[in-house]
Amino acid sequence: MDITPQQPHQSESSSSKITGSLDPNVPPFTPSDDLSSAKKDKQKEDLEKGAGSTSQKTRDGGSSKSTPDDSNKNKNNKRRRPRIEKVITGYIPTQQNNVIELFVYDVPAVWSIHQILVHLKDWGSTIQLSSKRQRKYQTIKVLIELNDAGLAAYQRGEWTVSLGGIPVRWFPGTYSLKERKHRERFVAIIKQLPDDLTTATLYQGSPHQFLLNARVDAFKIIKLADGSRKLLGYYKNLDDMKAVIGNKQSWGEFSLEWCTLDSLAPKKKERTQP
Predict the structure, then answer these.
(1) CA gap 274, 272 in Å, rounded
(2) pLDDT tens digits, one per residue of 106-119
(3) What residue segments make up the domains of the chain, in order of their start?
(4) Superkingdom of the source (predicted)?
(5) Taking the model in full, what pTM does it have?
(6) Which CATH number is 82-182's, of 1.20.1250.20, 3.40.50.300, 1.10.1740.10, 3.30.70.330?
(7) For residue range 36-80, what is the model confidence (pLDDT) as tens digits?
(8) Distance between CA atoms of residues 195 and 125, nearest Å
């Protein structure tokens, strides 16, 4: 197995600075000097004075204007670039009809390539794998010869499957980013989740009955800036989503209600007509 890390391209830049100082030993200009030579000396003197004053202003703590290029460079340096790794296992498939290319979402970023390959054995035999890490999660693209169980789940059109005991979302490798985002179009949510309602309690190798009752095709829990959390349930079509809106489900002593995203959005103030 060959592992070939790919480092993001970084552009190199160089800056030049004009510096100079006046030489007190330079003889003053006299009428006997050549006129063209005097002009050159005067231009050199003006240039040196300008560079010297600029350098002194910077050393004295004066403010300097940053160029758009400089600001862009600072933004690019602050922005964390995704880390990409690729693996070719060398496995030669024996069942070509079972070979599928997949995008896999929600894989923990802390998982190494080796861990991912170990967990993928539950799906079948990996031929090629690439991983793109960003923040808490990584997206993987895998070419794999699925086993019978994995192929059956794929042919049933399941959106969520278990990888190493945790829920991940998979997509056909032929899907564009727009097509993958389209699966997030029909979503219902539950806000203000109880502390013990977590991804781990909702999915332990298979979906909890709570998710089965809601008939979600995929789900995700998001933590908001104020510390509260909300559960997102994704559906394949509008009718399935509408069927769950307004339904209440019990979680321990709590009664939780499914609603739409629009119901959480702040209402716009109506303008009074003149």
Answers:
(1) 6
(2) 999 999 999 999 99
(3) 82-182, 186-260
(4) Eukaryota
(5) 0.63
(6) 3.30.70.330
(7) 555 556 566 665 555 554 444 444 455 445 555 555 555 555 556
(8) 38
